[in-house]
Amino acid sequence: MTSIETGRAETRTITLTATPESVFDYLSDARHLPEWAPGFAPAVEHEQGDVWRIPDEAGPRRVVVKVAKDHGVVDFVSADAPNLGLFARVVPNLTGAELIFSLFFPEGTDPVAVDAQMAVVDQELKTVRERVEA
Fold first, then answer.
1. Tens of pLDDT along 55-108?
2. What is the DSSP string of 38-97?
3. What is the mean pLDDT of residues 103-131?
4. d(CA 63, CA 6)
5. What is the pTM of this model?
6. CA distance 10 to 36
């Protein structure tokens, strides 16, 4: 029998008073990445289609922004490894929207590093809320 190593999944959510459509529209526009995720993307440059470049000292990173508006999907994944990245969902709640961010960490990732990354994710969610509820 073959074993499959799934790694570690971490998910965070936040409740927003904004409409799901306005949250989706904001999040799916990659030009907003430096506003809500400055540690990940201090700047972005459009390459083509759904591919964006994030300048980095080690060379630009290429990110694909995959969207499916009807399903509230906005994923920011590596152009080189599409199973790595931030997987986001915008879903309606009773009066606004829920924003869900999920990340996956390889098996054996230091728990301290995971906790530090998820603290960043918590701040990113709060920043998105501030932007769309303004």
1. 988 889 999 999 999 999 999 999 998 888 999 999 999 999 999 999 999 889
2. TTT-S--EEEETTEEEE--TT-PEEEEEEEEGGGTEEEEEESS-TTSEEEEEEEE-SSSE
3. 94
4. 22
5. 0.89
6. 19
